[in-house]
Design goal:
Mean pLDDT: 81
Strand order of the largest sheet: 4-3-2-1-5
Distance between the termini: 76 Å
Family: Belongs to the YajC family.
Structural class: alpha+beta
Largest sheet: 5 strands, antiparallel
Helix content: 25-40%
Protein name: Preprotein translocase subunit YajC
CATH class: Mainly Beta
Strand content: 25-35%
CATH architecture: Roll
Pfam family, one: YajC
Radius of gyration: 25 Å
CATH topology: SH3 type barrels
GO cellular component, one term: plasma membrane
Low-confidence stretches: none
Shape: flat
Organism: Serinibacter salmoneus
Length: about 110
Amino acid sequence: MEYTMFIFLGLALVALFFMSSRGRKQQAKQQEFRNTLNPGDEVMTSSGQLGTVHSVVGETVLIETTPGVVTRWVKAAIQAVPPQFATAESVPAQDDVIDPDDPDRRDRI
């Protein structure tokens, strides 16, 4: 009976150690990503702002959000490379596009 408390305590400490080491690995990966930022890289900030790295000066990153608009951010706010969104060129053309003004449409009431 006395040993079960020590077993549960030991298991809790082991689980805490593994969760802590995973967090440290993720932090190190994020720090490495931030340290390798170069002009021209597409990035997303922690608030969701998308843009292209204009320049990196110390702990400050200048991000161009639209042509001619440059904003200043701290490196810690740079979260990740944004996911690629679908563009008109990446979506295959569809031959079965429905024209709402087509008189031959059968779904009109």
